[in-house]
Amino acid sequence: EIVLTQSPATLFLFPGERATLSCRASQSISTYLAWYQQKPGQAPRLLIHDASTRAADIPARFSGSGSGTDFTLTISSLEPEDFAVYYCQQGSNWPLCSFGQGTKLEIK
Amino acid sequence: EVQLVESGGGLIHPGGSLRLSCAASGFTFSSYSMKWVRQAPGKGLEWVSYISSSGISIYYADSVKGRFTISRDNAKNSLYLQMNSLRVEDTAVYFCARDNRWDLDHWGQGTLVTVSS
Fold it and tell me: Are B20 and B109 in contact (CB under 8 A)?
């Protein structure tokens, strides 16, 4: 079983600041990693796939990096609508998959 | 526009059964594998089940194996999840999602299943 650990659990930042979210895998997953954004009462939305490729219609302020076991989602300058919960998901053992426990991004 | 619409959730007693449906539109349903993912209240996301585009290949999370059955009807552009022997810990919002191999690129809005006596 591949376990994903996200940090921090909660991140408090001001609008306009840079956000850096981390996801660590329990074993190497190459670049088979995706990031999702979820707002209250909504379904998750795909932001990044293959560790660093933005999904369709995702703003350029979102970027992903990493390979192997360590991955980062960066939001370069936070907009008010970016405050949400973010999940990473690995697809290395597709068709199975697993998710991290999430990072909640809150307004300071 | 890709659309996935779940239905069939509700309140059910422990040990009961429920069948969820997911109606797909806006893409060639028969060309895509699909997944069910659930989210318990206030908790994170948990993968539940996978079905290949043809329906031949099927996988389940250990937590639901032997109790849940995934299926699809490509003629009706529909995905299903038959849930038997339901437990309190199965209480969650259930999402269907289009499987894009390494990620899930489109999700439904979810349907709430509450298992309680």
Answer: no
